[in-house]
Structure formats: structure tokens, C-alpha cells
């Protein structure tokens, strides 16, 4: 789907999430499944399809998969097998454009988060697997100038901030005195920027999101190099 074919989301998407928050049970969701399809899933799949061409311009190995299951739209069902919180549904929309070599949401990717209280864009790797995490830390340790450059662009600094969790102590095998030790201690390598919720209703959403993702190209290039995959 070309960008021009996707106009914008509708407020009905947020309204559905608000009501789901108040009625997070299978009976309510089953009774409102048609609303979920029309107001949430279908508009999200249209947005994902519209992101195909912009991604191909600056991140051709990151894919937009407009599939109902297993694609860029993250499932609304929560995995409650080992969770104390047994609510069956997520009350947000998550969309991730993952690398073509990726298997799951922990791989490097571009992310859009929509919920009634907070919308944001993310770029990077959230909770990367042990091997990938070690590779990122090692690359930072061995190439601190490259890491500083990845985070040093004025557009990146103006829009993004690194988030996520970190270790209290340096990971085993890394020098506690390394100038980048605070970043080496990170468990997540993801940068986030707030998305004005009003942008969801505007025709320029796809262009705006793509532009914001471009600002974090340096970080994504660094993470791809650490994973030994093409950007």
C-alpha cells in the first residue's frame, strides 16, 4: 500500500483500548471482536503496509509485514503462563518492524507504541538475547568512538533518549573503568521519542514516523554491525 492510501488512524482505536482496560476479560473481548477488527487491527495493518516504501529507502533489511498473525503487528493476547497479572489482553497497540533475519521482538527493530496515555516511537534492541547482548557490549568496549558517533548526531540527540534497564555492576569480563561502562551495563539498547497522540489522526503520520526513525539511523547501524547483519 502506498503512503497516500493510508490517511490516519481514527479515535475509535483509542476508545476501544480504553474500554478494554475497563473490561479486560474474554467475554467482553469476544462480544467486541468485530470492533477490534475494524477499529484496531485493520487500520494497523494498513499503516504497516504504508510503511513498506519508506522503510525500503533507509532501512531496506527491516520489513513491514501486514499480517494478522506473526507479522509486524504484535499480538493483543498476553502471555500469562508465568505472570502474576492474569489479564488476558494487552491494552496497547504495538507495531514492530524487525530485521529480516530476526526471529522475535528482542531483535533490532523500529517500534510504534499506542495506548490511551502514552504514545512513543522506539528504535533499537529491547532485551536482546544473551549472545546478541554480549556482541553489542563487546562492540561498545572495542569501538567506543563508533558508539559515541552513533549517539552523537544532533538530530538523534534532539529527539531521542536511551531507555531501558541496566545492571548494577559491570558485566563479567568488562573493565569497570571503561569510559563507556554505563552503556556496557545496559540490558536494553533502545532509544525512545514521544509521539504526539494528535499525529495519529493526521494524514502525515507515515511521513512523520519515517522521518523520526531516520534520526536514529546511527544507532541502528551500530546494532546491525554488532549482530553482523546488513543495515
Spell out the blueprint of helices and strands.
Layout (H helix, E strand, L loop, with lengths): L10 H12 L3 H6 L1 H18 L1 H7 L34 E6 L10 E6 L4 E7 L4 H13 L1 H9 L1 H6 L1 E3 L17 H4 L4 E6 L10 H10 L2 H11 L4
Antiparallel strand pairs: 1-2, 2-3, 3-5, 4-5
Question: Overview of this structure, please?
Answer:
The protein is α+β, with helices and mostly antiparallel strands and 231 residues long. It has one domain (3-227): 2-Layer Sandwich (BirA Bifunctional Protein, domain 2). The protein contains ten helices and five strands. The protein has helices at 11-22, 26-31, 33-50, 52-58, 130-142, 144-152, 154-159, 181-184, 205-214, 217-227; strands at residues 93-98, 109-114, 119-125, 161-163, 189-194. Helix 5 (130-142) packs across helix 6 and helix 6 (144-152) packs antiparallel against helix 10. The radius of gyration is 19 Å and the shape is globular.
List key phrases describing it:
10 helices; alpha+beta; 42% helix; 231 residues; BirA Bifunctional Protein, domain 2; 5 strands; 5-stranded antiparallel sheet
Question: What is this entry, summarized?
Answer:
The protein is of the alpha+beta class. The chain has helices at 11-22, 26-31, 33-50, 52-58, 130-142, 144-152, 154-159, 181-184, 205-214, 217-227, and strands at residues 93-98, 109-114, 119-125, 161-163, 189-194. The chain has a five-stranded antiparallel β-sheet with strand order 1-2-3-5-4.
